[in-house]
Amino acid sequence: MVRESALRFGAQTDEVTSLLRIVNMVRTGEATTRPEIGRLTGLGRGVVTQRVEAAIAMGFLEDGAFGPSSGGRAPRTLGFRSDRGLIVVCALGALHIHVGLASLDGVIIAQDHRAWEIVRGPAETLEATIAMVEKLLATTDGRPVWAVTVGVPGPVDFESGTVVAPPIMPGWNGFDVRRRFEQHFQAPVWVDNDVNILALAERVHRRDDAIDLIYLKVGTGIGAGLLSHGHLHRGANGAAGDIGHVRVGDSEVICRCGKIGCLEAEAGGWALVRDAERAIGDGAVGVLKTHHDAGEQLTPELICVSARDGDALAIALVQRSARLVGESIAALVNMFNPSVIVIGGAMAGAGEIYLAGVRQRVYELSLPLATRDLVIQPSNNDVAEPLLGGAELAIEQLFDVTFPRWFASGVPTIERVRAA
């Protein structure tokens, strides 16, 4: 058995290193039998047996059915104990709360959703979120919570778990989201921007751990999540990808962040609603005006639906947004050279009307080499995407980043995960 002291403050022996590797090989499906582990690691049969038995005793692995024989006795397969704990995932949006529970392999086993305005502030919002999670936990078999992830629609200092000057989240600036969840669940917590989490969901869907991808969310606001060789690029302080506040040339419009001429203030969903109401007031007619005159609240989703229905005003608004977004993201394409750009958020609901406008400007303004193999496509539009991405964030942090710190105790704790 691995001694507790062997992993204190991240110190590793050869035994611990090989044991960690074996658990992760089985967890990821790289190896599923003892002979496969031996071939891939170069460890002798006796050493493999010893390490596997230690991992089973610690509760990380379990024996499964017998696999196919290659001539001798059929080897017994191994499986990762994904049922040992639960991952709590919380996705906070401008107008909703979405929560879920996942097993340690990222499979969503329960979820709940409700309408909610995040402007109600952190105390009330997090209280409502925790209550939703507790309701889900009450339906489970009592497995402990191993990790919590929280996605928010604003800039996040990933290291501290605090929200920093979020334009659409009044009252949240500097709020320590991580601490509130750690206090309640007594488990490690990671907080990130919602678009980063959506980018991780795309990595799950594509099963490509080395992909170069930009996830562009154009909803009420605008933001991008960047995957470089499969790894999130957050930047020095977590602000990477916040293209919603790059300057649009010649714009004098005041943004919600207080600056002038931001992309979001010209092309975001709230800007399109503003411009649609102004145009209707100036005499524009069509489908959008009919909805407006019937007392319906104009929303980015309604503008997209109206564009698909042929409304001239809606089409003009959607095409202008796509053109401006395409111009801004072209600079990212030249610098970042992704293989895929995924467009999600409310504005993606306009379909090819929006995608075509983005593609046109990206291909016009980006270097030929940067766009030679570039694919620009819509997201899966799966309501579970934020939950999948949040579970993936927890799995990555637990097993790729912090595993050596808490491995010996068999259960992640706040203190061990946070250990330097």
Key attributes of the depicted protein:
alpha/beta; five-stranded mixed beta sheet; Arc Repressor Mutant, subunit A; 420 residues; elongated; disordered N terminus; Nucleotidyltransferase, domain 5; 18% strand
Q: Count the E strands.
A: 14
Number of domain units? 3
The appropriate CATH architecture of the largest domain is: 2-Layer Sandwich
Average pLDDT number: 92
Question: How large, in whole angstroms, is the Cα Rg?
Answer: 24 Å
Strand portion: 15-25%
CATH first level of the largest domain: which class? Alpha Beta
Task: Give the SSE string.
Answer: HHHEEEEEHEEEHEHEEEHHHHHEHHEHHH
Helix content: 40-55%
Query: How many angstroms does the end-to-end distance come to?
Result: 24 Å
CATH superfamily grouping of the largest domain: ATPase, nucleotide binding domain
Number of helices: 16
Shape: elongated
How would you briefly describe this protein structure?
The protein has helices spanning 14-28, 34-41, 45-58, 122-137, 177-185, 194-206, 263-267, 269-281, 287-293, 300-308, 312-336, 352-365, 368-371, 385-401, 403-406, 414-418; strands at 61-66, 76-80, 86-92, 96-102, 108-115, 145-152, 156-157, 162-163, 189-193, 213-218, 222-228, 231-232, 340-344, 375-378.
Q: What does this entry look like structurally?
A:
A hairpin with a 3-residue loop joins strand 10 and strand 11 (222-228). The longest helix is centred in the C-terminal third of the chain and has 25 residues, at 312-336. Helix 2 (34-41) crosses helix 3. This protein folds into three domains: 4-80, Orthogonal Bundle (Arc Repressor Mutant, subunit A); 86-200 and 384-418, 2-Layer Sandwich (Nucleotidyltransferase, domain 5); 205-378, ATPase, nucleotide binding domain (Nucleotidyltransferase, domain 5, 2-Layer Sandwich), CATH 3.30.420. The chain is elongated and about 80 Å long. It is built from 16 helices and 14 strands. It has a five-stranded mixed sheet with strand order 5-4-3-6-9, with helices on both faces. Residues 1-11 have low confidence and may be disordered. With 420 residues, it is of the alpha/beta class. The chain is 42% helix and 18% strand. It holds the Pfam family ROK. Belongs to the ROK (NagC/XylR) family. This is ROK family protein. InterPro entries: ATPase_NBD, ROK, ROK_cs, WH-like_DNA-bd_sf, WH_DNA-bd_sf.
